[in-house]
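Re: the request from the purification team.
They wanted to know what the chain is likely to look like in 3D before they choose a buffer screen. I agreed to run a prediction and write the result into the notebook, where they can find it.
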Amino acid sequence: MAVHRNKPRRGLNDIRTMSDMLTETSNPQRKFLKLAMLSMEKVRRGKERESARCRIEDIDARTAEIEAESESLLQLTGANRNTTGNTKDNQPQPAHRLNRHGLKLKY
């Protein structure tokens, strides 16, 4: 049996198929699939946006609560200092003193 050495051997990459002729834009099924994927992504992004908006509202509400509580605590401590008469020029006094024996806390 004689082998033709003039012709190169053909492999799997040399086989022509119909998929080579179709591009992504010319295939209508691919267009509809792409549209469906885009609409699903849009819905998902909308849910992410809503979730982020709710989280921001929760953070803002907690920040307002913290500020209100801080203000009320500052007013209480300021009122107690003014009634005891231990303040000079309305400057807050430290609740501790440091002496040669170490740190002493006032209760």
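For the purification team: The first helix runs from residue 28 to 84.
Please add any questions underneath this entry.
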